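cron nightly-structures :: item 1 of 1
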Amino acid sequence: MRIVLAATGASGAIYLQRLLDHLEQAGGHEIHLVLSSYAKQVVHEEIDALRVPAGVIEHSDKSMNAPFASGSARFDAMVVVPCSMGTLGRIAAGTSESLILRAADVFLKERRRLILVPRETPWSLIHARNAVAALEAGASLLPAMPSFYSRPRTIESAVDTVVWRILDQLGIEARDACRWRESTDTQVS
């Protein structure tokens, strides 16, 4: 698959890191990465630095010279993780003043998979209306809400419960995913 990963200024850089880790393990995918300036700041504050696997192609959010800024380039999916509510609103409004926003606009107009992973809470009515507009335009919203039936023991294992859902949306096998009532290790009564 050809995948665009983007991150914006919401807290949750660990979700992007774990997604990169899982995609590296899966192998065989062309990954393009774009970070907003605020995402870079959040990465620094939350996890010090992003471990970007070899082969990942990085792009500046201030440049429109990436292939996925045009609908003529054939990409399979885009994931914005974490997605700030400001970014969600700008995507819903169809603005294209940065590479991340232009790419999201392209994915919507070309009817390609666009997965937005908001982490912010609580939502205002404006946030909810923007979420509805993005859904109506064809985006998938996957809020960063960990599940706990796998009994995660670390922050990373809780984060992975969200990453597994992102991988599911991409159609990529999450080998170690805990599935409800499918695991013999976890019995929920």
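cron nightly-structures :: done
The CA atoms of residues 92 and 133 lie 6 Å apart.
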